[in-house]
Amino acid sequence: MRTKVVIIGGGPSGLLLGQHLNRAGIENIILERKTKPYVLNRIRAGVLEIGTVNQLRELGLGARMDKEGYMHDGTVISYNNEQTRIDFAKHTNTTVMIYGQTEITYDLYAGREADGAQVIYQVADVTIEDALTDAPYVEFTQAGQRARIDCEYIAGCDGFHGASRQAIPREARREYEKVYPFGWLGILSETKPVHEELIYSNSDAGFALCSMRNENLSRYYIQCDAQDDPQAWSDRAFWDELRNRIPEEFADTIETGSVIEKSIAPLRSFVCEPMQWGRLFLCGDAAHIVPPTGAKGLNTAASDVFYLADALKQFYQHKDPQGINSYSARALSRIWKAERFSWWMTNLLHHFPNQSGFDHKMQMAEVSFLNSSDEAQAVLAQNYVGLPY
Ligand code: APR
Ligand code: PHB
Fold it and tell me: Closest ligand 2 atom to the C-alpha of 186?
């Protein structure tokens, strides 16, 4: 087989990149390790920056999002009972969109299928060969058969545990990592969301987040021990702990009910530099991870894809290699700022084991400063809606 761009990974990064390339007439093949239903069943965050929203609209994939998603022009940050509303509209003239990643993935697959573009599912042992030459190729096993695709470029969109990053020799990359000493226990619940906006809540008992998918589907999280067994948390214990961590007005009114999913996610910050090695480019979770506080995971993937699609279009349409040569620097410049914001939000809002009395006072002073300073709120708003591309 032969194509222009092999995309390894059919998650949001790979699918979004594929869609940009299809629109520009640049032939590509996606290789995905799992089946489509498996990919579509993964539950992830649900806040889209305006840059992500605009990409989906420009690719002709925004219709369902615009119909079923919710525009939010603010969010609540609280500490015990003290609440600060961050007004995105006032500070940035823009909003974010609440629309689950599962739905986006569904729309992206529908778009790809409508274009008749190829996805090869259930591939194993993907290897990347000759990425430093101008004739790279990818090999993989499917249904017991080894196959090869010759190509011009390779996009590594295969997530944190994928093969692409590992294909860059150890001495050619540097990795930066911070693992946080807690996890998030998340539930999906068939209940009306407690508030029309998201509530990020710190409290003496730890962090909680009230989010949503739609009018009858809420998404709630509480900080927990990363080693906890989610099934050992009864629904009752979850609701009690959530109520304990959010401002009283919400604890008193929250609707509790049937829990349809329960899982624990670890919290990690991670960046691999550079994001390019010869003709191999990394996008999304393959190159970086953020803790979910601030909802930047999907949005950072989307900005990488924007830069890479732009670079490939410049190359194929105008023979201009400028974007390709500067991809890593351009993507990383924005990534590090999103890393900083997610790290800052995580530090601001969580209870850290072994936190000293001084550190605790610093956290409270920072929340109090945020509450009293319009400028501090503007900085949060600017980062939350997403820095410009
Ligand atoms: N070969 C082929 N496919 C692979 C391989 C491999 N060796 N390893 C992983 N994959 C597939 C996974 O099955 C998955 O479908 O690559 C895809 C990677 O998807 P994500 O992990 O979702 O990463 P990405 O597309 O970069 O999305 C980034 O979405 O999933 C969230 O937390 C993530 O919010 C972040 C954003
Ligand atoms: C979610 O709705 O799943 C969500 C929202 C905001 C976050 C993280 C997750 O910061």
Answer: 3
Evaluate the CA torsion angle 241, 290, 74, 260 in order and state its sign: negative
Closest to 162 measured CA to CA, from 321, 293, 289, 305: 289
**What distance in angstroms lies between residue 14's CA and the mean position of ligand 2's atoms?**
21
For residue 223, give the nearest of 349, 339, 326 by alpha carbon. Answer: 349
In the set 136, 193, 291, 292, the catalytic residue is 292
Give the model's pLDDT for residue 46: 87
The predicted model scores a pTM of 0.97
Fold match between 5-72+97-177+268-346 and 181-267+352-385? no
Where do the structural domains in the chain lie, given as residue ranges? Answer: 5-72+97-177+268-346, 181-267+352-385
Which stretches of the chain drop beneath a pLDDT of 50?
none
CB of 301 within 6 A of ligand 1: the answer is: yes
Query: What's the CATH code, domain 181-267+352-385?
Result: 3.30.9.10
Nearest ligand for residue 42 CA: 1
How far is residue 244's CA from residue 222's CA, in Å, rounded to a whole number?
10
The domain defined by 5-72+97-177+268-346 folds into FAD/NAD(P)-binding domain (3.50.50)
Residue-wise pLDDT for 226-282, tens only, equals 999 999 999 999 999 999 999 999 999 999 999 999 999 999 999 999 999 999 999
Q: How many other C-beta atoms lie within 10 A of the C-beta of residue 33?
A: 22
Amino acid letter, residue 294: G
Q: Which ligand is nearest to the CA of 46?
A: 2
